[in-house]
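Allow me, if you will, to draw on your knowledge of protein folds for a short while. I have a record of one protein: its chain in single-letter code and its fold written as discrete structure tokens. I remain grateful for any guidance, and I place the record below:
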Amino acid sequence: MKKRSKVPYVRDLTNVQTVYTARLRTLRVKLRTALATATDVELLTISSKADLTQVLEVIFATLDDDQEHFIILILNAANELIGYKVIASGAQDHVHIDPKQVFRNALLLGANSIILAHNHPSGKATPSAQDIALTGQLRIGGELLHLSVLDHLIYTKKEQISLRDCMPALFGDRDPAAESETKDPSKQQ
């Protein structure tokens, strides 16, 4: 029999790594099973928005479509999808996200980079001010951890909006449209 600590608030952490390892294996198995069932192929490399949309269709099909869900996709250095995690589920028009939960799960799953995604049950994929602010906060937090936030996709059954495509400055990218306007002498005064 184990000797108990006399200090009541000290927890035995010897099994923590085992729990996280089992959780990681479970997430990987669930993802591979869901993808193989839905597509009959093991799609693991994310190289385009179409690949990303296909993976999200499989994941969101398993979730209630009458409420918002925020998920992260976990990628390795080769942009291979190694797992995903539903971070939070909310109401019909919002979901509360704790950045600590996002990064804790990303780090536990061995992420080199992540892709953020959430659905809009309303069917309108237009990003809200809160979506934009959260994306900016998570991108900055990711930089501090040397963990790239590659994109944030807003998903509906009819359309998907990539915040990286529509707001490149949010990700630290230069906006080609803005650059062409400054280079065009007819638009300068």
Remarks:
- The chain has six helices and five strands.
